[in-house]
Specification:
With 159 residues, the chain is mainly alpha-helical. Helices cover 74% and strands 0% of the residues. The longest helix is centred in the first third of the chain and has 28 residues.
């Protein structure tokens, strides 16, 4: 990667992180529906054009927050997925650690900010990640789950 490309990537990451952080803060302060794109760009200290270079609207920004949270959770859980019958609770403990680290984001997403599709997409992504982990565990233990893995994953994420 060239130095120029690295600088662009860093600026993009910084801008998107600032926009995401601003939306979370503002949603907790005044509510999602009361938060405008101008509020977000002012809080993030970026131009309105920068917002639209990355997101089509406020809902797309919220969706990106949920996607990033899911990706982070999947990365953190992969190595912690119990692969023996003696390591129980490690994934649940990591889930609580993840929620503690990202408390404000969870408050926004699980508190019903935005339209229900963002929450549903988030839950679907979590269930899919859990399904992959559960299937890998069953395979490594050479067992067949008594219930469908898809059902177990949905139960695990609470849907």
């Amino acid at each position: 990667m060239t130095d120029c490309a690295a600088k662009v990537d860093r600026r993009v990451r910084r801008s998107t992180a600032a926009l995401q952080h601003a939306l979370v803060e503002l949603t907790l302060e005044k509510g999602y529906s009361a938060t405008t794109i101008d509020d977000i760009t002012n809080r993030a200290d970026v131009a309105r054009a920068t917002f639209y270079a990355h997101y089509t609207d406020k809902q797309a920004l919220l969706t990106s927050i949920a996607t990033d949270l899911t990706d982070d959770m999947t990365i953190r859980f992969g190595p912690r997925a119990p692969m023996s019958s003696t390591t129980r609770g490690e994934v649940a403990l990591e889930m609580f650690r993840h929620a503690e680290t990202n408390r404000d984001i969870y408050r926004v997403l699980l508190g019903g900010a935005g339209d229900p599709p963002v929450l549903h997409a988030y839950v679907d992504a979590l269930a899919k990640a859990a399904e992959v982990i559960f299937a890998a565990r069953a395979k490594s233990l050479k067992v067949t789950p008594r219930l469908p893995v898809e059902f177990l994953a949905r139960m695990w994420v609470g849907q």
